[in-house]
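Pinned message: reference record for TATA box-binding protein-like 1
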Amino acid sequence: SEVAEVQESATTSAALDEEPEPEGEIDIQIRNVVCNFTLPLHIDLHRVALHSGNVTFDRGRGVLLKQKRDPSCFVKVYSSGKIYIVGCRSESECKRAARGVGRMVQKRMGKVGDSVRIRNYKICNVLATCKMPFGIKIEELAKKYPDQTQYEPELKVGLDWKCNDPKATLRIHTTGSITVLGAVSENDVMRAIEIIYPVVREFRCSLRSRDCVASRKRKQLIRRSSSEEDLFFDVKRAPPLLKQVTFSSLAFVIYFM
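Predicted structure (tokens):
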């Protein structure tokens, strides 16, 4: 078994040392933009709900939930005037949705002739994804940059890279996919990808090699689990005499512990 493990580790390192696949373009996709703002008036949520479509009034939480179709997003309206918008695909869509929600509240509240302006508009979070044209050795990346990374394979998939300027968190996977979390603008997303690209490029590997290693590790785990199952037997299916011997020996061990 030791010889097999040595051979497997040698083939694993050899596979990862292969030349990476040719690089291509990186397509960055904005998946979600979250913003919030306030309107300078008290909002009667019950009144707005009665005269609006695609809305749900949660009286217990004191919030009005609205699903917008153009642009497609989800809106939370509070009686204090605080409004949250989730699910837009760009900053321009978020601004357009904010203006639409502001006009809708203004009309439903009968404030058409008054000047109601959006205040404290702020983008809270921009979530984006991209795919590198190569695999990434995240184990070696975590060893070289322990202060900037958080890698716990037992708890979650991927490696977290903390970026301070711009402030964002990048979740890096062995397949080369990267998810950007916590950015406050599309420009910050682009800057974060530009910063992380030369870092992950240093630990690039072939995607085919990475897939081979992953499948080899899965087979190894299955082999180990099957060998461990062979060491134990099913007591329910054992003969009666064997059951008595098993339970008596178990009671003997518990008594002397």
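Pinned by admin. Summary line: The helical segments are 2-16, 45-50, 91-108, 138-144, 186-202, 207-231, 240-256.
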